[in-house]
Specification:
The chain is mainly α and 214 residues long. Helices cover 49% and strands 2% of the residues. Strands 1-2 form a two-stranded antiparallel sheet. The longest helix has 23 residues. This is Retrotransposon gag domain-containing protein.
Length: 214
């Protein structure tokens, strides 16, 4: 008897949300697909689902604050599923919010035209904080302070968040996309391999997928 060949991570990129597909239905479909792919880590799953989702508030939520655990991802999808279902029962409210979202998306597209590429979209999980890795990489001469001055922004100057890589306010060292890209480049070049976290055998997705059940 032929053994069933497990699907690869590439299969998950094909599970995209359809144009009029409810979020709850899509998440259930995505979870079923994940069960067919062995040993997919959390950060990669978040990256894939962010790419596969249709534009909307849930996708914005993931982009703005990536879920730290699978429980967080699935519970957050529950929240936005309920909002979506509530809006669907009130056509006037739904239409108003749809218009607001379309306006937001239009502004974002315009802003992206004048922004540099975001760079790498997936970062491997690490076994130390990016701040700690930055210090060690600086000591080894692998990385140096970011040379380009950040754009002036009153809100940024008032922020309590501080980035050691930029030596500036506005976001934390852990949130810094430039630092994430620099660390990933060094890993690709063969450096810092000892800081890559390797997931133990087993699945962490199965125990939380039931959270999607209404």
């Amino acid at each position: 008897m032929n053994k069933r060949v497990p699907k690869t991570t590439a299969f998950l990129f094909t599970i995209r949300q359809k144009e009029i597909e409810p979020l709850r239905d899509y998440m259930q479909r995505f979870v079923e697909a994940v069960h067919e792919v062995p040993h997919v880590n959390h950060e990669l799953l978040v990256s894939i689902i962010q790419q596969n989702l249709s534009p909307g508030r849930f996708k914005e939520s993931i982009a703005g604050k990536p879920p730290s655990t699978m429980e967080d991802l699935l519970m957050r999808s529950q929240k936005y599923s309920r909002i979506e279902e509530s809006n669907a029962s009130n056509p006037s409210l739904s239409g108003k919010r749809k218009g607001e979202e379309e306006e937001k998306e239009s502004k974002k597209k315009e802003a992206r035209k004048h922004s540099p590429p975001t760079g790498l979209q997936y970062y491997p999980p690490l076994n130390a904080s990016r701040g700690e890795i930055l210090v060690l990489a600086e000591q080894q001469g692998l990385i140096s302070q970011w040379s380009t001055k950040m754009k002036d922004n009153p809100k940024r100057l008032k922020s309590d968040k501080y980035c050691r890589f930029h030596r500036d306010r506005g976001h934390t060292t852990e949130e810094c996309h430039h630092l994430k890209n620099e660390i990933e480049k060094l890993i690709q070049q063969g450096h810092l391999k000892e800081y890559i976290y390797h997931y133990p055998q087993g699945r962490q997705f199965d125990r939380v997928s039931s959270a999607l059940t209404p």
